[in-house]
Amino acid sequence: MLKKLLLITGVALIVSAGFVVWKFQTPQAPRYAFITVHPQTLRQEVQVTGTVKAKKNLTLSFPEGGTIAHLYVDEGQRVTRGDLLAELDTAALLIAKKNAVSQRNLRRAELAKLTTPPSFLKGAPSLSVEQAYVALYNALNSLFLALTTAKNAMGTIRKDDLLFVSLLHNNADLRAAYSNLSLGDVTDAYFAAQQDLTIDNIMSFLARSEEAFPPAMEALLLFDKALSSSSPGNSVTRSQIDTAITSIRSSKEKLQSAYASVMDTKAVLFTKLQNLQSDIEIAKSRLAAAEASLEDVEKKLNDARLTAPLSGIVTTIVKKEGEEVAPREPVLHMESTHLVIEANIPEVDIANVAIGNSAQVTLDAFGDDVVFQATVEEIDPFATIVEGVPTYTTTLVFIPPLPKPAKPGMTANITILSREKQHVLAVPQRAIITSGATKQVRILGDEGKIRFVPVVTGLQGSDGNVEIVQGLHEGDRVITFIPER
Predict the structure, then answer these.
(1) Cα–Cα distance between 272 and 266 in angstroms, integer?
(2) Residue 257: CB partners within 8 Å, gap ≥ 6?
(3) Closest C-alpha to 217, from 151, 165, 170
(4) How far apart are CA 479 and CA 485, in angstroms?
(5) Burial letters for 446-470: b for 16+ Cβ neighbours within 10 Å, e otherwise?
(6) Which of 1, 67, 423, 476 could cysteine-pair with 89, CB 3.0–4.6 Å?
(7) Domain 33-41+422-481 bears CATH identifier 2.40.420.20
(8) Among 159-163, 175-179, 293-297, whose mean pLDDT is lowest?
(9) Helix, coil or strand: residue 157
(10) Which residues have C-beta within 8 Å of that of residue 30, sequence separation ≥ 6?
(11) What's the pLDDT score for residue 21?
(12) Residue ranges of the alpha helices (H) in 160-237?
């Protein structure tokens, strides 16, 4: 019994030892920390501390100079945020806007002409190119008519057996030229294009026409030469010869003219095809410049309107209607009757803050659960040095209703929402590998294989995630950490 027990124990120890050896010798698949990419909302925030203040005195002015056309308020008058207080004379700006709109519309039309889809000719990249194809087709029709007329003129001479025999006698070149003259291929191409006007049929018509022109012209020249050297005889009169010469030379001139027209329209078409993209880019650039000019005029028109930046009372009116005012010269003073928040934002963050940004504010007096809504009203353009750091005094106004009665002097914890994007693909900053100007992420494949993918980044969120504008797709598994082995 004891031997049996010892035997069982020994076997168990051997099996256990074997499992341990197998466990440690078997290579383990590497483990990666990764995230699965999915659409999310990305927020860029600036967090600062400020102080609640009782009211604010404001000096209002126009960004640009001009003549004050209208004053809409009096001293002591209460105004609401957004009310129009004063306005400069905008007659010249309105004319400039009208001209800018006309120029913008002209540039739009130019771009549309280059990019408008063709109306009926399939395969043409634009309406302008389609028109060039149609012009070429019309020129080819004229050339075909000239070829047919020339062939008929020579055929008429052929029917006059006595004259024809006289011309062909001892003229091997003329006999060969007339024998080789055939319009069968170009005639087939002509009817094919008539039945179905496509780019392929037009180009086939062009190729067959170019092939038919040289032998036709050669035959006409030989006929002209032979007729010019012919003399009237017993069988042929001078009148017959002169009539034939007139017919041949008329056909030759028409054929040359029609062929030259085809070559001209062909050159126009090929130039348009070659320059189309360049023309489109130029048109886009001109449109962008026209739109920028219009935006500049509209901004100046907007700057010519002085509105109340907050609700309050007009305390002093400095300028009167009809007076000239310089840029930033005081026009009137007003004071706010509402509480405001002032904060000094460091220079590293101020670029991410703009007037009109929304903000959430908590006050130490009420704790983090009581949240006030606010908006950025003003940013001082000049820096204030605080503890050796350039900062910019930024004013925020509360948005009513207030959840609690705030009081001057209270400490405010401010989170300014500078930008927000919804439904974007984003990854943690640590997942992005930067090498010079190139940014990449590592994607984990289904079989555990890693591939590097270049990406283009966008908004950097305050939560550490970065928007991926290009390079990733929803569902991709992006590695954020590879442990050392």
Answers:
(1) 10
(2) 146
(3) 151
(4) 16
(5) eeeeeeeeebebbbbbbeebbbbee
(6) 67
(7) yes
(8) 159-163
(9) helix
(10) 448, 482, 483, 485
(11) 44
(12) 161-168, 172-180, 184-195, 199-228
Confidence of residue 290 (pLDDT cuts 50, 70, 90): very high
| Cα gap 387→455, rounded to integer Å | 40
What would the two tokens of residue 261 be? Answer: 């027209």
What one-letter code names the amino acid at 239?
S
Q: In what order do the strands lie in the sheet with 324-325?
A: 305-307, 84-88, 66-71, 324-325
Q: Looking at domain 58-88+304-334, which CATH architecture does it have?
A: Beta Barrel (2.40)
Neighbours of 403 (CB within 10 A): 12
Task: Report yes or no: 84 and 73 within 8 Å, Cβ to Cβ.
Answer: no
- pLDDT one-digit tens code per residue, 242-281: 887 888 888 888 888 888 988 998 888 888 888 777 888 8
Write out the two tokens for 396: 């925020």
Work out the pLDDT band at 357, boundaries 50, 70, 90.
Answer: very high
CATH 1.10.10 fits 127-290, yes or no: no
CATH 2.40.50.100, the chain: domain bounds: 58-88+304-334
- Bridge pairing between strands 477-481 and 66-71: unpaired
Q: What is the pLDDT of residues 391-420, one digit of tens each?
A: 999 999 899 889 998 888 899 999 999 888
CB 178 within 8 A of CB 220: no
If you count them, how many residues does the chain have? Answer: 485
- For 273, the token pair is 């095809």
Q: Where in the chain is the domain with CATH 2.40.420.20?
A: 33-41+422-481
- Chain segment 72-99, per-residue pLDDT in tens: 999 989 898 889 999 999 999 999 999 9
CB distance 167 to 228 below 8 Å: no
Q: Whole-angstrom Cα distance, residue 291 to residue 377?
A: 28
What's the burial of 69, exposed, middle or buried (CB within 10 Å: 0-12/13-18/19+)?
middle
Q: Which two tokens stand for residue 274?
A: 């070659």
Q: Where in the chain is the domain with CATH 1.20.120?
A: 127-290
